[in-house]
Specification:
Length: 377
């Protein structure tokens, strides 16, 4: 059934399809054989990011004037995230999507010419890696006569479980202005500067290769990014959409894992795929997946047209990440007791998928954003 094995095609043209084949080959050769070792090591090797940049799968949106490919179409970043999820490499999907779809576009869109010149060439060849940091972080202005570059700010606060936080030098930070109103604000920070402490996060139940870190800012220096609240909201919207993209592809991968298992596994002399309960669980999951994909496709189309709202991004993130969890849960249930053993891919998917409902705004926070859009008095 194409709903189980295929990725959507209506958003993509021949160039995207050719790029998808290249990404699939890159991941099969350079990621899949080594991914279990990355889980053990707790991070993706730095060399992988350099190779991804060299082969055209990282920093594609960096303009040619700054050493990048100059690909303005964000669908190429979507393809990379989809293929990493379909290949069972969710940590790589999160790391590349955080850079390709959130951090680097934020620098290009909201950064100054000075920031472009200082950062984009090094992002283009993965000399530095960028990630997004969202937390309870006060971003306050320094006096205008402070020596150094313009728009200097001070950062105070903490963010936990930051994707690729252990390795990223460029931190695209979303916090608030420190006032009672807590107006959203964005800034750029260097993880190597005084006042910025990076600590590997306590081991979680999944995503061991994601380089998760807790980041503490203690009057750390930074530079303001963009036009205040609007820039911060654009970054959050990009992050939520990127998580919805990877969630749907993760659900698709989990459904494929479950389908392969029930076709192979036998009970009472026949494949368990022939049992009515199995077929109904898979049918429900596939139907829900197609509905989620349609919602996601429509949202991507809105983003491409420049009209994606904050509440729409929250709604699609909520729906697709909850869908991811539900499909993986059904897949594990169909494995029976074997689904709870880590040697089976569905167990890793089950542990990994839970992160999506927490990162980039919890499901409860997304519900509040959606509700607020129609409960305004």
């Amino acid at each position: 059934m194409s709903a189980i094995t295929s990725t959507p095609t209506d958003l993509f043209d021949d160039d995207h399809r050719a790029f998808r084949e290249s990404a699939e080959t890159f991941i099969a050769r350079r990621v899949t054989p080594d991914y279990p070792g990355w889980r053990t090591a707790g991070a993706i090797p730095r060399e992988l990011f350099k190779q991804a940049a060299q082969d055209g799968f990282l920093a594609m949106v960096v303009p040619e004037a700054h050493g990048g490919p100059g690909v303005e179409d964000p669908r190429f970043g979507i393809v990379v995230a989809q293929q990493a999820m379909l290949a069972g490499a969710p940590a790589l999907a999160l790391a590349l999507s955080s850079a390709n779809d959130v951090a680097i576009p934020a620098v290009i869109r909201d950064g100054s010419e000075l920031q472009h010149g200082a950062l984009l060439p090094r992002l283009a060849d993965a000399t530095i890696i960028g990630t997004v940091v969202v937390g309870d972080i006060a971003i306050t202005d320094l006096p205008a006569d402070t020596p150094g570059p313009p728009n200097q700010v001070s950062l105070q606060g903490t963010a936990t479980y930051v994707v690729q936080g252990v390795d990223a030098e460029l931190l695209v930070v979303v916090g608030h202005d420190g006032s009672e109103a807590r107006t959203p604000r964005a800034a750029l920070a260097n993880s190597g500067k005084p006042g910025c402490t990076i600590t590997p996060s306590d081991p979680g139940i999944g995503l061991q290769a994601a380089g998760l870190a807790d980041i503490d800012f203690a009057q750390a220096p930074g530079q303001a990014l963009g036009d205040g609240a609007a820039a911060a909201q654009r970054i959050q919207t990009d992050l939520q959409l990127s998580l919805a993209v990877s969630a749907v592809s993760g659900a698709r991968a989990a459904l494929k894992i479950a389908t392969d298992y029930v076709l192979d596994r036998k009970a009472f002399g026949q494949p368990i795929a022939q049992f009515e309960n199995t077929r109904q669980m898979l049918g429900e999951a596939a139907a829900n997946l197609e509905a989620g994909q349609a919602f996601l496709n429509a949202t991507i189309a809105q983003a491409l047209a420049g009209g994606l709202s904050t509440e729409r991004a929250a709604a699609v993130k909520l729906h697709c990440t909850e869908l991811f969890g539900a499909v993986v849960d059904a897949g594990l249930q169909l494995h029976g007791g074997y689904g709870y053993i880590m040697e089976y891919p569905i167990a890793h998917a089950y542990a990994d998928a839970r992160f999506w409902r927490l990162y980039g705004g919890t499901s409860q926070a997304m519900k509040d954003v959606v509700a607020a859009s129609f409960l305004q008095s």
